[in-house]
Amino acid sequence: QVQLVESGGGLVQAGGSLRLSCAASGRTFSTYAMGWFRQAPGKEREFVAAINWSGSSTYYADSVKGRFTISRDNAKNTVFLQMNSLKPEDTAIYYCAARVYYSGGQVAENYGYWGQGTQVTVSS
User: Fold this and answer.
1) Nearest 5°: CA angle at 51, between 110 and 20?
2) How far apart are the first and last CA of the chain?
3) Across-strand partners of 10?
4) Residues 6 or more apart from 50 whose CB is under 8 A from it?
5) What is the C-alpha separation between 75 and 65, in angstroms, rounded?
6) Long-range contact set of residues 68-75: C-beta below 8 Å, sequence gap at least 24
7) C-alpha 87: how far from its chain's center?
8) Nearest Cα to 94, choosing from 104, 79, 109?
């Protein structure tokens, strides 16, 4: 099992940058693939980015490719999401999550442990 706590959200102007962090408890962090999801008011939760257990492979939604970078530091039990060139449509609550199912796509149903979320607001 793992407990996840996000931080780093806030208010930023369009074109700016934010770096989100997700701190994990326990000693099993390095065995989980990790992901970031986001949910805007009135919309479904959507996939943003994912990284495998070692950090050797990453995956991105088309909407953030080239702007966001996911990384992890297993020695510090932390996963990061660097967000550059932010747009108003990036406004959402951002959640980090640990994957529990080996097979399948990057959908919320394949992730079993979730943080509480951190608000990101991008003003125009």
Assistant:
1) 100
2) 40
3) 120
4) 33, 34, 35, 36, 58, 59, 70, 99, 106
5) 26
6) 70/34, 70/36, 72/34, 74/29, 74/30
7) 17
8) 79
Q: What is the DSSP string of 18-32?
A: EEEEEEE-SS-GGGS
pLDDT band for position 30 (50/70/90)? Answer: confident
Q: What is the pLDDT of residues 69-82, one digit of tens each?
A: 999 999 999 999 99
Q: What gap in Å lies between CA 78 and CA 87, rounded to an integer?
A: 25
- Do residues 97 and 110 lie in contact, with contact meaning Cβ atoms separated by under 8 Å? no
Residue 45: both structure tokens together: 């939760």
Task: Give the pair of three-digit tokens for residue 90.
Answer: 């990036």
Structure-token pair, residue 15: 């074109």
pLDDT > 90 fraction of the chain, expressed in percent and rounded: 86
